[in-house]
Specification:
Length: 591
């Protein structure tokens, strides 16, 4: 079907998604290549992904965007199909991707008006010409088809593979080969005492069942094969619901000690899964933190947070909100996403780290595979309970899918713009030396307030935009060509240290504070969205379970996405179902 493409007005069935990808490859053969995975799913389906790019070469950055890991999360696969269509049409026509003004009605409250928003054609041109973009809209076709056609089991999460005891399905986002056997990683007794549950379930009857073995599922192996063989630098797994943007790690707090990593036998069965300062840490026990370096030149932790913040800001812009404006607006109140590290975003509501998640598996490739460049991995949790949770309404009004679709476009294109414009980092997941070496030598400690402020300006203020990141990378290359030798010399000469401290570093920091302001935190506070149970925990009393039937009279959403197709009438629970997740409502990583 050639463009223009109709709006998606009902959830696409699994085969419709495959047909849409095949159509894109046929309609844009010079720009879009479709690859079908080699192995059928448990119910005999095939699924595929597309590569969108004009050009090739060994030094092009690559991004992989995935949706449909969990069956009941309707919007992400449809939004990713729409994203692929919009990028290809915009690139070939040279026109902006335009989202018209819209009115969205939450389940409770007054309608909210959003003005038109657009993705400039110049940004699309950069993405298509400078980047290898891989889009896998639907990882779990069997599960999606089941959720769309079986009203007796609304809210199906897993795939449909047969399991022990006559049970069906594995939670694909607990099946990846990254601390899959969490009992070999954590001090399980401590974890259970702190969080009241496990990072994943070992029972085939549970929504978060991890499977009989790591990557036991066809769908998991397909995604792992892409992450293992393609030179992916940026990864996003799109889920719902919760309005959260999560960056790695999700299995533990991030740390600086390279000896603390998930494969280190010295820490087997003793990792605490606790945030720094948690009183639950036994006396005398070292607080374990999973290694994720923030040293130059990669600055993985800082960049991960800054890219997530760029995604957050673009979502606000798509709602007509200036991210820098302090005033709250109605649009902001309904479009504000929370940015945070996956492992502890849900700590305020009782959630802890998770195991076997796709974003952590993606992040781990830079350490597990030789000569791999840094990978920035994210879980994007879209939608909200006020937009019918997992089963957003595709009708207009209320316009829930239109809003979520716009937010996914905003977040993903923000990530892709960074990927297309930032210099490709060199291979090697580890970092280099220290931070501000000369300032550290002169002031005596890397955590001196002036050193921390200078690092903040460089790593957070300057790197807040793609252009600033390029400037910072150039400055790093120049600075680290001479600063280690200067720092070593200063450490041996006390008077020189004093002169540099009094005559250079402190006046410089004071002047910068005067003109640029104090240190500030770039991301929103780390709190979970209201109404959603924490990862790995069951829903609180009064929250409907996914096993409950749909509202009376709801027709099955089996219609195609052709223009004018009536939307599904199913409603979602007002609060998250059991099984927690790192996607704001599910246990672990969107997740």
């Amino acid at each position: 079907m050639p463009p223009p493409y109709p709006d998606i007005t009902a959830p696409l069935r699994a085969q419709e998604i495959e047909d849409a990808l095949a159509d894109l490859a046929a309609s844009f053969p010079a720009l879009c290549t479709r690859t079908v995975f080699p192995t059928e799913t448990a119910e005999g389906r095939t699924h595929s992904y597309v590569r969108i790019a004009n050009g090739s070469g060994p030094n092009r950055p690559a991004a992989l965007i995935v949706g449909g890991v969990h069956a009941r999360e309707w919007a992400p696969p449809d939004a990713l199909v729409a994203l692929a269509r919009n990028l290809l049409v915009s690139y070939t026509s040279g026109t902006d991707v335009v989202f018209p003004a819209m009115t969205v009605t939450p389940l409770a409250g007054a309608p909210v008006r959003y003005r038109a928003w657009r993705i400039p054609a110049a940004d699309v041109n950069d993405i298509v010409t400078k980047l290898d973009l891989y889009v896998l809209p639907l990882l779990n076709p069997d599960g999606r088809e089941h959720d769309l056609t079986h009203l007796s089991e609304p809210g199906w999460r897993k795939n449909r593979s047969p399991q022990a005891g006559g049970e069906i399905g594995v939670d694909l986002n607990r099946n990846f080969d990254i601390i899959w056997r969490f009992e070999d990683y954590y001090d399980v007794a401590l974890y259970r005492a702190r969080y009241g549950s496990d990072p994943a379930s070992t029972s085939p009857a549970e929504d978060t069942y991890r499977g009989p073995s790591a990557h036991s599922e066809v769908e998991t192996r397909h995604l792992e094969s892409l992450l293992d063989t393609l030179p992916i630098h940026y990864y996003a797994d799109v889920h719902m619901f919760g309005r959260n943007i999560l960056y790695s790690w999700g299995l533990e707090e991030d740390g600086d000690d390279p000896a603390m990593h998930w494969r280190a036998p010295a820490f087997a069965g003793t990792r605490d899964g606790l945030i720094a300062g948690d009183p639950a840490l036994p006396s005398g026990r070292t607080d374990y933190k999973e290694y994720l370096p923030d040293d130059p030149p990669h600055r993985i932790r800082s960049r991960a947070r800054l890219i997530a913040t760029a995604m957050h800001d673009e979502i606000l812009r798509s709602a007509g909100v200036d991210p820098a404006a302090p005033a709250s607006t109605t649009q902001r109140a309904h479009s504000e996403y929370t940015v945070g590290q996956s492992a502890f975003l849900y700590l305020p509501v009782g959630g802890g780290p998770n195991s076997g998640c796709s974003d952590d598996y993606a992040c781990s490739r830079q350490f597990a595979l030789p000569n791999r460049q840094p990978i920035f991995a994210y879980c994007l949790e879209t939608g909200h309970a006020e937009e019918q949770g997992f089963h957003c309404n595709y009708a207009d009004p209320p316009g829930h899918f239109r809003k979520i679709n716009r937010e996914i476009h905003a977040a993903v294109t923000a990530l892709l713009k960074v990927a297309a414009s930032a210099p490709l980092p060199a291979a090697g997941g580890g970092g280099g030396g220290g931070g501000c070496l000369i300032a550290t030598a002169a002031l005596g400690h890397p955590d001196h307030p002036d050193v921390r402020y200078l690092r903040h300006l460089r790593d957070e203020r300057l790197r807040a935009s793609p252009r600033g990141a390029r400037i910072a990378d150039t400055l790093d290359r120049v600075y680290y060509s001479f600063s280690p030798a200067v720092a070593r010399w200063l450490r041996r000469h006390r008077r020189a240290r004093t002169a540099v401290r009094v005559g250079l570093i402190r006046p410089l920091a004071a002047t910068l504070r005067l003109f640029l302001g104090p240190r500030r935190t770039p991301a929103p506070s780390r709190t979970a969205s209201a109404g959603e149970p924490p990862p790995s925990r069951t829903a609180s009393a009064g929250e409907p379970s996914p096993s409950r039937t749909a509202s009376a009279g709801a027709p099955p959403p089996s219609r195609t996405a052709s223009a004018g197709a009536p939307p599904p009438g199913r409603t979602a629970a007002a609060a998250g179902p059991p099984g927690g997740r790192r996607d704001g409502t599910d246990p672990g990583g969107g997740s």
